[in-house]
Every structure is written in C-alpha cells, then in structure tokens.
Amino acid sequence: MNNKKFIFCILGKSSVGKDTLINRLTTLNCDLTKVIPTTTRPPRKYEKDGRDYYFTDRKSFMRNVDNGQFMEHRKYDVIDKSGKPDSWFYGTRFPKSQVSVLTGSLVMYEMIISNPNIEDYSIYPIYVTVPDEERLYRMIMREKKNWNPNYREVARRFISDNNDFSDDKLKSVGIGETNTFINVDIDVVTGEVSNYIKEILNK
User: Fold this and answer.
1) Distance of CA 189 to the CA centre of its chain
2) How far is Cα of residue 41 from the mean position of the Cα atoms in its chain?
3) What digits encode the pLDDT tens for the residues 113-123?
4) What angle do CA 33, 45, 22 make, to 5 degrees?
5) What is the b/e burial string over 157-184, where b = at least 16 CB atoms within 10 angstroms of the residue's CB?
6) Are 192 and 128 in contact (CB under 8 A)?
7) Is 51 in a helix, a strand, or coil?
8) What is the spatial order of strands in the sheet that 54-55 belongs to?
C-alpha cells in the first residue's frame, strides 16, 4: 500500500443492499472506515443520527458547502408525504482515514472524481446490483417501515435510478465485470467485495 489514501465507493440503485454491505465490510475489516454522509432529509424510522447519516438543516448544510467541507454535494427534487415538491441535500465529507468506504449514487461518484481537491486519494468504484423485481420489493418493504409511507417517492426513485445507472453511464466511469457484484446473498457478496478490496490494497 502506498502513501495515498484509498476510497472505495459502493455504488448502486436504491435498495440493492449498499448499507448492509458496507456495515459488514467494516465489521470484517477494521482497517476500513465508513464515511457517513450528511443530509437535510428527515430520518427514516429505523435510521440514527451519526450512524446512518448526519442529519442537519439546510442552513448548516450550505455553510459546510461554503467552507469546502464536502468532496461532493447534491440536491434532489422530491415529493414529500403530503404530495408537495421539496428538495433534499446530500453531501460527502473528505475522509481522514487511510482506507475509507462509502455508499452512494453514480452522480455522487462522478462529482467526487471531478473534484480538483482529491489528488491525495485513490478512488475505486464498486457496483452492486440486484434484479429489478427484487429491488422494487425491497424498496416497498423498506418504505412500509416508515411512520407514514410515501410510495409515490418510491416510484420516483425506482424510475430515476434506472435512468441514472444506464449501461452507458456505468461504462463511462469504469464499471464492468470485474467490479460489478450481484447481491442476492449478502454473505457471498460480502466475501467477493472484501477480496476485491484486498487485491487492490495489496498491489
């Protein structure tokens, strides 16, 4: 391993198991540090501040943007539970650890690698996927756990993800067979991704 810092980006559509995978990877390998994202959206019923996200208000979020705290930040236009349009902001801070792992979208990854202040980092994408029917089922079941499920937003995310993760877009950022993993068995995919990360670090 050289002196550069490593960032492994677990990318994938909604409900492919990115969070479960990253939690297992960091449990198995104490050298891997999870980068916790920041967001202005309200927490889901099962989420905890500082574990899943740092939940903040829009004013504080924009102050961090102005201070250059984020490697990337994004705004998503959404439909709230009352059916009205809203905007949620997400951001990823610069990690301090030698080897870090984070989850997110393809848009997030593209913004990270285009940041001119990442010259100290070696960044690797890892794409996780599941069949569409399984993913839609997971999305619905996850939303069902919320206090007030918003299935309209589930439908929006499902369609948006299919556009955001098109084959052409995946290919353009270097995602192919060697760094694509199908998550139908979490134990299997954890082992596969862990081995992939170890191979890169041992080069």
Assistant:
1) 16
2) 15
3) 999 999 989 99
4) 20
5) bbeebeeebeeeebeeeebeeebebebe
6) no
7) coil
8) 54-55, 38-39, 85-93, 70-79
